[in-house]
Amino acid sequence: NSKIRQNMQNHNLIVRTEMADLLRPLSDQIQEVQNFREKNRGSRLFNHLSAVSESIPALGWVAVCQKPGPYVKEMNDAAIFYTNRVLKDYKDTDPCHVEWVRSYLNIWTELQTYIKEHHTTGLFWNKTGPVAPPSLFSASSGGPCPPPPPPPPGPPPMFMDDSPKPDDTAAQHSALFAQLNQGEVITKGLKHVSEEQKTHKNPNVRSQGGRTHQGSPAKSQNPSTSACAPAKKHSPVLELEGKKWRVEHQEKSHDLVIEETELRQVVYVFSCSNSTLQIKGKVNSIIVDNCKKLGLVFDSVVGIVEIINSRDIQLQVMGKVPTISINKTEGCHVYLSKDSLDCEIVSAKSSEMNVLVPEGEDDYREFPIPEQFKTVWDGSSLVTEPTKIAG
């Protein structure tokens, strides 16, 4: 058993090293972008550079094991903090900068859409697929090098180690795409169905309610279901990873505290239940994703606080926050402070939302957020307003 474990550890180490070598060139480019921003702090386009620098690690989504989509959105939110400054400076003077903001943020929006459609829970590698020959990882010796293809997503520097850097990025990309684009080879794993088993040609088979498939294994009937391993219980996490505080899989923990925060840090709270989290100081943004019965108390946020795919959330602002977004959430109570009364609250596909405004020293007055709206045509445009039944 110890020998088997040792072999597995050696294999995992080799895989991680090869993955690091494969993705290191893009990681180096990400670092170049961030260094360029630091070297140009006096530039009049510093907010533009900061928006790119803060969000460019989103290309590292391929190294995120769970739900890379929220990770990309988190990086996008970090960019919005600086693009809002760009809009403030140029929206009335130069439309080119406004168009740049729209185009740049659209990059990450499109990437999130792609991940949601194809890699919702992260990348899956074909363990039984062909192995790329070593020659693909070495530089070509004959003829001029072709222009490199568009860079695929790569990990931010925090994911990389000190293993040697390969010389030919284009060849590595070809090796990766060769495994993904197998063409007709993929269909070789399909099971042949005889004429007697085709329901559209045999009414008797249809009347049997599919009993002819009892002899076949369940995985042949529903490959997508069988490919998913049973959900395992994850260990709770509360740690700082680069610029991101990760608070994940906490259950019945009511003493969670994040201290010594910085303005550039973001907090990502994922899959926590029956817990309370306090965030001290000022952070860039907070994302609460897939949580239940969570109490969140924070001082100040310079960007956005987003609640998504959650239920029964208690949110209390002690300082200031410009925007709170509530999406796909059932039950959310927002306690505002006197300094945060100018906060914008944006909601969509959510219910049972209430905002509590301070009155006096210790009292709050509760206001429901409308859930039902009425839209009418006024002769020139659509006009939408909350219905009376919605409060």
Automatic annotation (TrEMBL):
<dbReference type="InterPro" id="IPR036223">
    <property type="entry name" value="CAP_C_sf"/>
</dbReference>
<dbReference type="GO" id="GO:0003779">
    <property type="term" value="F:actin binding"/>
</dbReference>
<dbReference type="GO" id="GO:0007015">
    <property type="term" value="P:actin filament organization"/>
</dbReference>
<dbReference type="InterPro" id="IPR001837">
    <property type="entry name" value="Adenylate_cyclase-assoc_CAP"/>
</dbReference>
<dbReference type="InterPro" id="IPR013912">
    <property type="entry name" value="Adenylate_cyclase-assoc_CAP_C"/>
</dbReference>
<comment type="similarity">
    <text>Belongs to the CAP family.</text>
</comment>
<protein>
    <submittedName>
        <fullName>Adenylyl cyclase-associated protein 2-like</fullName>
    </submittedName>
</protein>
<dbReference type="InterPro" id="IPR053950">
    <property type="entry name" value="CAP_N"/>
</dbReference>
<dbReference type="GO" id="GO:0000902">
    <property type="term" value="P:cell morphogenesis"/>
</dbReference>
<dbReference type="GO" id="GO:0019933">
    <property type="term" value="P:cAMP-mediated signaling"/>
</dbReference>
<dbReference type="Pfam" id="PF08603">
    <property type="entry name" value="CAP_C"/>
</dbReference>
<feature type="compositionally biased region" description="Pro residues">
    <location>
        <begin position="144"/>
        <end position="158"/>
    </location>
</feature>
<dbReference type="InterPro" id="IPR036222">
    <property type="entry name" value="CAP_N_sf"/>
</dbReference>
<feature type="compositionally biased region" description="Polar residues">
    <location>
        <begin position="202"/>
        <end position="227"/>
    </location>
</feature>
<dbReference type="Pfam" id="PF21938">
    <property type="entry name" value="CAP_N"/>
</dbReference>
<feature type="region of interest" description="Disordered">
    <location>
        <begin position="194"/>
        <end position="235"/>
    </location>
</feature>
<dbReference type="InterPro" id="IPR016098">
    <property type="entry name" value="CAP/MinC_C"/>
</dbReference>
<feature type="domain" description="C-CAP/cofactor C-like">
    <location>
        <begin position="230"/>
        <end position="369"/>
    </location>
</feature>
<dbReference type="GO" id="GO:0008179">
    <property type="term" value="F:adenylate cyclase binding"/>
</dbReference>
<dbReference type="GO" id="GO:0005737">
    <property type="term" value="C:cytoplasm"/>
</dbReference>
<dbReference type="InterPro" id="IPR006599">
    <property type="entry name" value="CARP_motif"/>
</dbReference>
<feature type="region of interest" description="Disordered">
    <location>
        <begin position="135"/>
        <end position="170"/>
    </location>
</feature>
<dbReference type="InterPro" id="IPR028417">
    <property type="entry name" value="CAP_CS_C"/>
</dbReference>
<dbReference type="InterPro" id="IPR017901">
    <property type="entry name" value="C-CAP_CF_C-like"/>
</dbReference>
